[in-house]
């Protein structure tokens, strides 16, 4: 796919390349905790919904935030997002019951066993997230799936899960080939006590073989840059820069495509005004922004602004998402137009406060009646 470049020959500072690549099926959004992954993943899903037939956003973070971001309660079943006709959301349950095991294709003959031990398996939340991936790859009712992932460590385990599971299943199937005859003999010996003993073993091994094929398919799709990409989200600070570099290096080991970085919570110099604190933060951020540009000159780097209010609700996400496809340009600071501009801004704020006081007084009078 041809990269989007601007007039200077640099990669465009937008995620338009993700929207333009119609072959993409899996889009992971991840990074360090607290950098705004959920806001960015929801914003990307909103933009994708405008150009794709149907989009599903899945939260694989045990501490789900999709419901808070959209101001709508979601569950482990896909639900239509309010205000959209083709955008769906769901939150993976990290505490599975028996029905959750259906995603692994072992509900018959092995589901109860897996369900019994599931609560004691380390990393079961990643396993259940992967089970949801496999459900979707088998049905693929959506033209594109966006993953709002957990912090970096959990995400890397999730992405490593297909390869690890594939290796384990290969060993299991090799054991079947080595000991198949013995298993059949034992099954026939147990036949009178266990109805359909041999059939149960064959059925279970058949399910394992079916699971192996699905895992191989998912693994192949994850490594196909025409189908899968990873969008890294970070903030212009040292720890986030370090974590992003680690994440990109690990993604390269997994052969997963990553060519977009979203730098969130950026303070632009035009918005500093007379604040010494903001000026100091801009100076600190600029140092790390320069490092990002030096390290990732072959990436699309998108800068998202730090806002005065939280981005919550479909309307706010729609407005914020525009910054993913059009570079953000801060409005002129009120003080930049001289003393008259500053005076006008102060007068506007005073007028707003007076109006607010009048509204509160009216509410108080109504309450007394």
Automatic annotation (TrEMBL):
Species name: Micractinium conductrix
Keyword DNA-binding: no
Gene Ontology biological process terms from the UniProt entry: tail-anchored membrane protein insertion into ER membrane
InterPro entries the record matches: ArsA/GET3_ATPase-like, ATPase_ArsA/GET3, ATPase_ArsA/GET3_euk, P-loop_NTPase
Gene3D superfamilies: P-loop containing nucleotide triphosphate hydrolases
Record's subunit section: Homodimer.
Main location, first listed in the record: cytoplasm
Protein name (record): Anion-transporting ATPase
Functional summary from the UniProt entry: ATPase required for the post-translational delivery of tail-anchored (TA) proteins to the endoplasmic reticulum. Recognizes and selectively binds the transmembrane domain of TA proteins in the cytosol. This complex then targets to the endoplasmic reticulum by membrane-bound receptors, where the tail-anchored protein is released for insertion. This process is regulated by ATP binding and hydrolysis. ATP binding drives the homodimer towards the closed dimer state, facilitating recognition of newly synthesized TA membrane proteins. ATP hydrolysis is required for insertion.
A cellular-component GO term for this protein: GET complex
Family that this chain belongs to: Belongs to the arsA ATPase family.
Domain ArsA/GET3 Anion-transporting ATPase-like: 25-325
Amino acids binding ATP: 32-39, 237, 264
Residues at the catalytic site: 61
Transmembrane segment boundaries: none
Pfam families to which the protein is assigned, alphabetical: ArsA_ATPase
Classification via SUPFAM superfamilies: P-loop containing nucleoside triphosphate hydrolases (SSF52540)
The entry's keywords: ATP-binding, Cytoplasm, Endoplasmic reticulum, Hydrolase, Nucleotide-binding, Transport
Gene Ontology MF terms: ATP binding; ATP hydrolysis activity
Localization of this protein: Cytoplasm; Endoplasmic reticulum
